[in-house]
Amino acid sequence: MARVRTTLCALVVGLMATLTGQVGATPCDQGFINPLTRVHWSCIFPFQIAGISIGNRSPLDADNPRSPICFCPSSFGLPLPGIRVNFWSPNRWIDTVENPGCMMPLGVDVMETDGRLHGGSRHTYRQGTTFAQMHYYIAPVWAILGLFTDIPCLDESGFDVAMMSEVLPTYQNEILGAIINPEAVLFGNPAALLACVSDAAMSHTGGTIDTLFWCMGGWGLSYPMGGRSSSADHVEANAAIAAKQIFMMGRLGLLRNSTRNGCGERLAPIWTKSLYKLQMMEPVKQSGCVNIGRTGLIWSGMKHPPNEDNYAWQIFEKVFCCVTP
Hints:
26% strand
């Protein structure tokens, strides 16, 4: 079923692009992205089964429950025991594009804007401003490829385009954006910014401080949740814009995280940063993942080819699962 939905979605988007006369428009002509070759598969590790880790533990790994045994509610009243399985799942794609309507994972351009909604960058000495449109895709790669189907917590929702920023006035205008995140005014002060210093220091070593949800380490603030970043590094700026959209999807009620007991999911209006890591798929395949906030000085070199200002990101999400009989 996942493959059928993927094919139908690609056909529909391709038809839309044909009607707008944008198929083949550079740089959105690379075709449907191939997860087998563009996903860096080592990012799924470490994989934990009953407390035993497969793969080396990384500073990027979220804090795992220590007990190998878990208990979930059952229909007959008594807790049902199970084995705890924790893993990183490639569930979502996000593209951050200068060209509106450029859907990089699908390889098509679906919108003719005549210059409206167009992104771009402006840079001065040690300062920069980057704006990009965003498309958020539900892309459970394992389910699409038919892998690990025996894991009960695997996302099997099928491929879908969940959000296009071009239709969101709150994304284009930071003042309108306060409609969905009015608390942003609380963090636009020196005290809140000073608190982000510790998160920035932690992010450089591969960690993050989840309680400082308004901070994105060396990438700046997670507010406002529009398509703008003030980073002087173009690659880092696009990573920051992609990370903001994870938070925004939670504020819109479209993001769920697995509960730590592994027995279900919960809405995530306030994101838990340590549950996510990013890997660039286009225009350059990144040989590794980065936690939210890690400075581009460490990882962004040689990842901005000339005239390539559109990016596609694989989002890995930490999943806690209780496998019961």
